[in-house]
Structure formats: C-alpha cells, structure tokens
Fold:
Amino acid sequence: MPGPGPAVTLHVLPPSPPCRTVEAALRLKGLAYERVDLQPGKHQEAMAEIYGPARTTVPGVVIDGTPVHGSVAILERLEELAPEPALYPAPIAEAVHEAERWGDGRLQDLSRYLPWGAMHFRPESLGTFGGGGALDAAGTDYAIKVIRGTWRYHGLTAVVLHEALQDLPALLDHVDALAADGTIGTDHVTAADLQIGASLRVLLTVGDLHPLMAGRPGEEIARRLFPDYPGLVPAGALPAGWVPER
Ligand SMILES: N[C@@H](CCC(=O)N[C@@H](CS)C(=O)NCC(=O)O)C(=O)O
Structure:
C-alpha cells in the first residue's frame, strides 16, 4: 500500500557514484523509494524510454510520475520535496551548489576512469567489487572481456588513464580547500558532501591511490558517508611512476 509520501522510483547501475549520491540523499531525507537496478548495457534503452532519448545515463528518479534525470537535478528536486534536513543549508547554500557542480565534473569522470583503469592491470580483482574475493582463472577471462568493453565505452586508453592520474592531486587539493572553508566535511551533510564523497569513495577502491588520499578530509567524508562500498584493486597494479607523489 502506498505510504503518505511521494512515490519515488530510483533507476541505478549499483556501483555508480552519482547513484550512491542520490540514494544517500533519499535516505537522509527519510523518503521511501523503490530502487530499480538496471543491467549494464541494457540500461541505456531502459533510461531513454523513461527519461527521453538523450538521457541514457544513471541516475534518474520518477517522483509521482514525473521523471527527473541526473544527480544534481535530482538532489535539487528532493530539497523542494523534503526541505529538512537541508542539503543546501541557507548560510552556505551558494557555496554548496558550486561545490556540488564541481564534484559533478572532472572528479566524477576520474571516479569512473581510475578504478576501471587500474583493473585492467589486475582483472581478477573485479570479483571483489561484487563482494567476493579475487576471481579464478575462468572468472578472470570473463573479467578481461568486461574490462576491455568498459575501456572502449569510456574511451579509456593508457594515455587517458595517465592524464587522469596527473589531474588527481589538484582535485584532492580542492577537496581539502572545500573542507577547510566548511563547505564540506562538517556534521551537517550537504549535497556537496554526497556528490564529492561518493566519487572519492570509489577512488578508495584503488589501492595505489591510498597514499594520495590517506588522512585527508576527503577520505574521512567518503568513508563516513559511504561506509559500505566493496572492491579493491590491490596496490601495485598501476605501472610504476604513474601515480603522482603526494
Ligand atoms: N553527471 C551525471 C553522470 C551520469 C553518468 O555518467 N552516469 C554513469 C554512471 S556513473 C552512467 O550512466 N554510465 C553508463 C552510460 O554512460 O551509459 C550525474 O551525476 O547524473
């Protein structure tokens, strides 16, 4: 039987950082929702049917029959629907909007490139992302196919991966600055915490990135807000010298 709140259906690919962002926001707002896990590859057709032909990425939500597509638009809509607790608290709302949009850019790209990039070198670790251990030989054959397909889909090459790694230190410095000025990382969780924290949590699945991230505010936010995120590509996967020094 429908509850007193709006009817919310969330469409996701489960490991996706912006999907985690939206799910965390729904929980924070105390809104009941039904989550539909789409099948990678088939998700585009399903999303286009609901959200329109140009809107094939996840996440999307349908709220009382109205589709809203993309993590930023969804968080803004959730704020209208359930103003408390505020995702954009009044005194810092503008800074939070800006930081959220920043997090929806290059940092989110890296959260896709770097785990898939590192996995190329340790394909058996794909099994850990499903909550299991490293894959056996037959499983690794399958993982190699999946990882190759994902590299093709994202336009990943070794050069793209190397460039992404070189961009990471400046992005992490910006996260430090946002925490230092109180836009993220306080007890009051904002839209920017959820957007940035989800991407950083996925980056923590790459063991080679731990030295760059350890002990910094971004790591604390990511682990606090997204405690359960399986998967680890063991340190030493990426070619020597590709990860910048801290
Ligand atoms: N910036 C968008 C990103 C959407 C996006 O690229 N989502 C990825 C998952 S993280 C996706 O749908 N990938 C599959 C695809 O591109 O078809 C948002 O935050 O909603």
User: Anything to note?
Assistant: The two ends are 54 Å apart (CA to CA). Residues 13, 16-18, 44, 56-59, 70-71, 104, 108, 112 surround glutathione (CB under 6 Å). The domain at 90-225 is CATH 1.20.1050 (Glutathione S-transferase Yfyf (Class Pi); Chain A, domain 2).
